[in-house]
Write a structure and sequence with these properties.
Two copies of one chain form a homodimer.
Chain A: H1 3-23, H2 28-39, E1 45-46, H3 47-54, H4 58-70, E2 74-79, E3 82-87, H5 92-116, H6 123-150
Antiparallel strand pairs in A: 1-3, 2-3
Helix pairs in contact in A: 1-2, 5-6
Chain A binds a DNA duplex (30 and 30 nucleotides) through helix 4.
DNA sequence: TTTTTAGTTCAATCGCGATTAAACTAAATA
DNA sequence: TATTTAGTTTAATCGCGATTGAACTAAAAA
């Protein structure tokens, strides 16, 4: 594969990472930075390399990188005056935890909604109960999966 | 429970539904409408009831409701000149499908990223492979779950 | 000590989706 | 037929997060 080909391929992937992370609530620039750090062959990039490759201002890079570091998405290595950044690998179990917390809060909201219904047998009340049951079934299964993985 | 108590309880839940749906990409008003239709005791509400309870303009209600109907989140019943709206209950398997499509596209992006790496043994390449394996394990499990539920 | 460099800070602005207001349409009603 | 009513359309505006630019700080280099 030629260098130019690789570069343009990387640009496309950076864009895809970017739109994905945008869709889950990150700033556009944050998504591109995660993309660049994911895609790039050298996995530790300086502040300058980042702003030059992505063509963004020092200001936004500074703000967004600080946020990404605070959120443990990116790790920073200081080397003299220079800062180097690399992707911080997430603990996959923590990702699962996060998803389960989301399910829990949905479950909680649906329960509160049913509690407030005059008619607990109404169509929506039944539907919400069905969703709650599905969430509970799902949690049983992931608990099993978690155990299985942990005992390997 | 008193009526006033129930009403303010509903308002709070509407707000919680609203912020939840906002967080997954819906317009604020769309989230509140879904909340109102989820929480309200009468589960079929007229255009007027919606704009009065949520204190929103006819214009935004019209636009947002059309969108929600197009997305199959809300069903509309026309009765003479009046339109009545109710929550459209989703097929829970379709929700699962949607989640799996999301996993598939993530898997695809990670694969493309590894393909483009010069060093397939780099730290990030290994990390991405680990995520792919986790996704695959997850899919095996949900397939089993799906079969189990379908044969009930 | 002076100069250069790396990154930070923050006020200003940009961009854009969400929302409204008011004119408008079409159907029901009188 | 004239009027009322229910909802639609769309131009204008609002609000706000994202981004920039330029001044600024602090540390390294000269």
């Amino acid at each position: 594969m030629q260098d130019s080909e690789r570069l343009s391929g990387q640009d496309q992937l950076i864009e895809r990472f970017g739109t994905y992370f945008e869709s889950i609530g990150f700033q556009p620039i944050a998504g591109r930075i995660i993309g660049l750090l994911s895609v790039s062959d050298r996995e530790e990039l300086s502040f300058d390399e980042i702003i030059n490759r992505l063509k963004i201002s020092k200001g936004s890079a500074s703000v967004v990188l600080r946020k990404l570091v605070a959120e443990c998405r990116v790790a920073v290595v200081e080397n003299g005056r220079r800062h180097y950044y690399k992707l911080k690998q997430q603990n996959l179990f923590e990702l699962l935890d996060e998803f389960e917390r989301m399910c829990d809060s949905a479950r909680h909201l649906l329960n509160a909604t049913i509690d407030l219904k005059t008619d607990k047998e109404s169509s929506n009340a039944k539907y919400f109960n069905e969703i709650i049951n599905t969430i509970d079934r799902y949690k049983t299964i992931t608990a099993t999966m978690r155990q299985a993985v942990q005992t390997i």
